[in-house]
Amino acid sequence: MSVDENYTRVSEFVIVGFPSLQPEYFVLVAWFFFFLYVTTAVGNLLLVVMFTLERSLHEPMYIVMVSLALSDIGFATVALPKLIARYWWNDGSLGFHTCFFQMHMIHYFGSLNSLILLTMALDRYLAICFPLRYPTMMTNQTMAGLTLFCWGIAHIFPGISTISFTLMPFCGPNKIIHAFCDTMSLKSLVCVDTSRQYSLAFASAMFILYVPLAFIIFSYICIVISVLRMAKGQGRMKTFSTCATQGCIISIYYIPRFFVYVTPFIPNLTMTPDKRIATTIFYSLFPPVINPFIYCLRTKEIKQIFRRWLQKRKGVMPTKHGQIVAVTMSN
Q1: Whole-angstrom Cα distance, residue 24 to residue 87?
Q2: Closest of 50, 165, 184, 19 to residue 110, by C-alpha
Q3: For residue range 52-71, what is the model confidence (pLDDT) as tens digits?
Q4: What is the H or E stretch that residue 152 is in?
Q5: Where is each G-protein coupled receptors family 1 profile domain found (predicted)?
Q6: Number of H helices, E strands in the chain
Q7: What is the homologous superfamily of the domain 12-307 according to CATH?
Q8: CA-CA distance, 285 to 317, in Å (whole number)?
Q9: Which of 6, 50, 71, 76 could be stapled to 40 by a disulfide with Cβ–Cβ 3.0 to 4.6 Å?
Q10: Cα-flanking dihedrals φ and ψ of residue 316, to 5°?
Q11: Under a CB-based contact definition with an 8 Å cutoff, are residues 83 and 285 in contact?
């Protein structure tokens, strides 16, 4: 389908956010998203700083945790500041290329998180199912290489979609009924038929999201079988508790995404803009907020580091035998 060559090219887009939200709630919503951003940034930065300072954490499991923390900080930094500005100062405008950059990074960090969860599942699978071979199979260098590979390859599928949409004509309305620029919100603003481009973007999203999910499910099944065969008592319950907790986070990440993506393809199944935005925000921002607590604060080594740091601040030092000794200061 062709378009009139005399059309006026859109120079900027406007983030609308929740279309049904009344103005008297704008400031409250802005504070809510500001709190989410600060909590996400502080919680995940704390993990990064702890990993940098504590050599005892320089292990494969913590390398992938830090990778997830940096990805979560990146997503929140790309998605939230403009949304906060939209509700705090009524400034939702984004330049044409800035919007496409945001779209690319939104989908990039979504793809990256999927690959990081895959890497994390692989690490746990090898550690539990092959405990004797794990130290040689998964070294720090191997995990660092896998992490860098994930950060690089995650650009491919979002990049194809971004380039495809950048070359399309935008000649009509410029209001984005969403919390940020993404493929679904921009396709409705294109002047020509986007079914081919959207189908390609949809197929890419399904591949990058659900191929890793298939391996994650497989790895957890193997872990459960291995634990039932080998672990006893408290160790078994601890492993099941960890798997259940991570399974909840993985479910929050994947299941709502699936419904948002497939809704346009299912007849008689509709989702209002407000519900779609709320669902997207939930699965995009809830995991980054709680990931530091789920993956890190439940870990024995990190809790011991926190306890040692707090004892130092209070002037209390642990002895070799685990006893606590107060440190006195003299002038």
Answers
A1: 10
A2: 184
A3: 887 877 888 889 889 999 99
A4: helix 140-153
A5: 43-295
A6: 11, 5
A7: Rhodopsin 7-helix transmembrane proteins (1.20.1070.10)
A8: 38
A9: 76
A10: -120, 130
A11: no
